[in-house]
Amino acid sequence: MSGKIYLLGGHQTDFATNWLRQDREIFDVFRDTLNQGLNICGLDYDDLDCGHVGNFNGELFNHQGIMGGYFGMVDPKLSGLPTGRHEAACASGSIALLAATAELEAGRYGLACVMGIEQMRNVSGAEAAAHLGSATWFGHECQNVKYPWPHMFGKLGDEYDKRYGLKHEHLAGIAKINFANGRRNPNAQTRGWQFSDNSFTEDDDLNPVIDGRIRKQDCGQVTDGAAVLFLATEERAIAYADRRGISVSTIPYIEGWGHRSAPLALDQKMTESAGADYVFPHIRGTITDAYQRAGLTDVSAIDVIETHDCFTTTEYMAIDHFGITAPGESWKAIEDGRIAMDGEIPINPSGGLIGCGHPVGATGVRMLLDACKQVTDTAGNYQVADARRVQTLNIGGSGTTSVSFIVSKD
């Protein structure tokens, strides 16, 4: 990386809010989120050099494309701002972040705004599932399947079961942790939800099967949400710190990153990884690329992880791919408490997608914003003590696109 890319902060909406019930359009939330983020960070419209939007399915949920044009509608001062929108299914926000960092590293601009946004509760559940299915290999995968993504990530669990064995109780352990963490987060969709112990068992009434081995509590919670983050070159970050009377060493920066993609079809991914230690070698490579760029050896240098958990099977995969356990042994980190809030390496203190919520295009930006909060000790009730280095993993499609960031602070 040519010079550090600093993270000045940002803002996240309440993921429990249904925008349609508030009579708000997606642009209304875009505008308010941008303005609140600017206010929190002490920035003005004139400070922004470029804008990037992460959004997966605006054309289907909102009949709206080219959302980069929203910036110029917020205020006349932003008319003419160079902008773009980025799509990579659930990794859309992280791809927008990568595009912004690349422009800053190239010296084109000094300060970038990245907005992740998605409205998903304005249609029926069946229609939402159909829209989300566009990230499968359309016309080839999930034919005559009611809920495409539980089906696909159930197959990921089946692959683990075939290679290493997989127990429901370990998937349930992941769900329990993430719902519990979500109760700490004032922006989490599920913070007020209540469960009994049987809600996480194989009780078909309290925890019904959605598809295959995937039950209700195994599922990430789609919702409406937005998150904005402001990124700066070292020069601009120093000027920003001087203006605020603080040291630039107090501002988090991106220490490392990884980005890899695999074939769209899940079966092709599985065929390519046959005989490999990792079910998704390209995701393992994304994570280790981030270590390498940060000058780190392995996960032992990481204090906190915010990872994709669209389903419990996704996080189960992530645990061993991060190197927390040997391949196929993710269950050990669940049983011994390593990934719990008070464990050796807490995963998803925010609640993750299961506990916090998953507005698809916003998730990658929300993850990086939460990483900033952790390393600056501003995460409130879900703060991990002494968090100095946080790693994210954001996945789009059936593991098709994967992006990982490592955030640190001097």
Describe the structure.
α4 crosses α14. The strands form two sheets. This protein has a nine-stranded mixed β-sheet. Strands 5-6 form a two-stranded antiparallel sheet. It is α/β, with parallel strands linked by helices and 410 residues long. It is 35% helix and 17% strand. The two termini are 16 Å apart. The model has no long low-confidence stretch (mean pLDDT 97). The protein has 14 helices and eleven strands. The longest helix is centred in the N-terminal third of the chain and has 16 residues.
Tell me the distance between the termini: 16 Å
Mind summarizing the main beta sheet?
Answer: 9 strands, mixed
Biggest sheet: strand arrangement: 3-2-4-7-1-8-11-10-9
Mean pLDDT comes to: 97
User: Quick one: overall form?
Assistant: globular
Unreliable stretches covering 5 or more consecutive residues: none
Annotation field: number of helices:
14
Strand content: 15-25%
Q: What string gives the helices and strands in order?
A: EHEHHEHEHHHEEEHEHHEHHHHEE
Tell me the number of strands.
11
Structural class: alpha/beta
The radius of gyration computed from the alpha-carbon positions, rounded to a whole number of angstroms, is 20 Å
Determine the fraction of residues in helical runs and give it as a percent range. Answer: 25-40%
